[in-house]
Amino acid sequence: MRSYLIDGGKPLKGTIEINGAKNSALGLFAGAIMSDELSTIENIPNVSDINYLLDSITMIGGTVKRKDKHTVQISGKNINPEEIIDYDCVKKMRASYYLLGALIGKYKKARVALPGGCEIGSRPLDQHLKGFSLLGVKTNLKNGIIYAEAKELKGANIYLDVPSVGATINIMLAAIFAKGTTCITNVAKEPHVVDIANMLCAMGAKIKGAGTDTIEITGVQRLHKVNYTVIPDQIEAGTFMIGALVTNGDITIKNVIPKHLEIIKYKLEELGATVIFDNDTVRVIGTNKKQSIRLVTAPYPGFPTDLQPQMAIACGLAKGTSIIRETIFEKRYAYVDELSRMSGKMKVSSDSLIIEGIPQYQNAIVSSPDLRAGAALVLAGLNAEGFTIVENIQYIERGYEVFDEKLRKLGANIKIIEGQTSEDIRRQIQKERFKIIK
Ligand code: UD1
Fold first, then answer.
1. Residue 144: HSE in the Cβ half-sphere, 13 Å Cα cutoff
2. Directed axis angle between helix 308-315 and helix 371-383, to 10°?
3. What pLDDT, on the 0 to 100 scale, is given for residue 420?
4. pLDDT (tens digit, 9 = 90+) per residue, 13-55?
5. 149 DSSP assignment
6. What span, in angstroms and rounded, lies between the C-alpha atoms of 310 and 273?
7. Per-residue pLDDT at 298
8. Contact status, residue 378 vs residue 403, Cβ threshold 8 Å
């Protein structure tokens, strides 16, 4: 087991740069396999989710050439659509299901294992399947595998009951070569939906309206190669912005798109932080006089659910009672019990989290329940005085490139330790004569 060992209680100060958006890169890879030419995608983050999806593409015959850790070349030329993208792939990385839309779009055929539930709650595919069906695709579920097949793909009017990011991207991919025009209404407007549409357009697709409530796709014959650069990661930037407030620090974050961070700026300012945008840079100055807030997660441009756990850590340090309502994923409070070991005072009530502010977290051994909650626990550890251990950091490594290295650049005392059990780790720490409180 890999864990972070944090000697906290110091403000984060300095400048870091944000990597490319993981969630965007995943959709861009699916888009790239829709051409038989070799596309180059730059600014990809070097995180494990990225490698899992690239492995899935290789497994079905696609060409993947890693030029360096942030650049990949992809072609869909030799893909065999009969190959099954099995449960092991989808389990490791849910976004493997983007290959479903891409393969349907390109070959009118796909075989992808149905992803199960996951640690943040149930994630149905009904909207994806509804969209495929309206395009003329027949889907069959056999032994956990979705078999999708169409004689012909025909443009259709599709209304999404929820503005699902995955369904928007998957249906958009499936409709690229469909005959006529597809109109998808109530779509997701997240920055990475727009990024993926932009790349597909640069490859020759005809897509209008990405970033609004309706996306219109007019079928084309083929896509050509592209050289494309992934947008900066909104969630990684947001995590560091919140980190500045949680540690009462002063961080400048380079390579951001301020528009994508507006809602995060507003909520951090309500809590008491000073947030300054300047071209592609944001500076966040923390305060130890934080005010309680209300926060509701919502699809973009609302407050992202992927920053809800990190924001709860900041609210936990505010004077008075804050209330967070999670409207996207029902199991996204898995960090609350862990945080109570750090003296966090939070209570889940239905879809809400009621948070009573405390002056500072206490150090403890905690376990990362999922990607974003893991990052949130690291922020709490950076606030706490003394040694905190955050176990199971393989979740955090799915989405944050060199998280510890970037935090060290900001003055944090954090390092990776390895051991099979908590006991191993404790022994390792004692060997280093660190004092820990369990
Ligand atoms: C994407 C992001 C994830 C983020 C989430 C919400 C990627 C790879 N992942 O996940 O990091 O947390 O958006 O911003 O981009 N739903 C249905 N039926 C469906 C599909 C979704 O009811 O067919 C519901 C889900 O249960 C959830 C909501 O819609 O309540 C949003 O899910 P969705 O936007 O699809 O999330 P993902 O695309 O899985």
1. 12
2. 20
3. 61
4. 999 999 999 999 999 999 999 999 999 999 999 999 899 899 9
5. E
6. 15
7. 98
8. yes
Say yes or no: CB of residue 39 within 6 Å of ligand 1: no
DSSP H or E segment with residue 427:
helix 422-431
pTM: 0.95
Q: List the structure tokens of 304.
A: 């992202």
Extract the tokens encoding 153.
């793909």
CB-ligand 1 contact for 328 (6 Å cutoff): yes
pLDDT at 418: 87
- Reply yes or no: is the peptide bond before residue 45 cis, omega within 30 of 0: no
What residue type is 215 in one-letter code?
I
Interval between CA 127 and ligand 1 midpoint (Å): 10
For residues 112 and 110, what is the distance between their CA atoms, to the nearest angstrom?
6
Ligand 1 atom closest to residue 165's alpha carbon, by position in its atom list? 34
Model confidence over 330-370: pLDDT tens digits?
A: 889 999 999 999 999 999 999 999 999 999 999 999 999 99
**Ligand 1 contact, 123 CB (< 6 A):** yes
Q: Encoding tokens for residue 190?
A: 């997240």
Ligand 1 contact via 309 beta carbon (within 6 Å): no
Host H or E run for residue 65: strand 63-68
Catalytic annotation, pick one of 89, 118, 183, 201: 118
Ligand 1 centre from 22 Cα, in Å?
A: 15
In whole numbers, what is the pLDDT of the chain averaged over residues? 93
Q: For this structure, is 89 an active site residue?
A: no
Q: Residue 327 C-alpha to ligand 1 middle, in angstroms?
A: 11
Mutate to test the pocket of ligand 1, among 96, 164, 173, 194 (most ligand atoms within 8 A of CB): 164
Indicate the helix (H) or strand (E) that contains 348.
Answer: strand 345-349
pLDDT of residue 121: 62
Tell me how far CA of residue 99 lies from CA of 83, 164, 433, in angstroms. 12, 16, 49
Identify the segments of the chain with pLDDT beneath 70. Answer: 116-122, 420-438
Q: How far is the CA of 328 from the centre of ligand 1 (A)?
A: 8
Closest CA to 190 of 293, 88, 279, 302: 302
Asked if 7 contacts 381 with a C-beta cutoff of 8 angstroms, the reply is no
With a 6 A CB cut-off, is 95 part of the ligand 1 pocket?
Answer: yes
Could you tell me the distance, in angstroms and rounded to a whole number, from the CA of residue 55 to the centre of ligand 1?
23
**What is the model's pLDDT at position 435?**
46
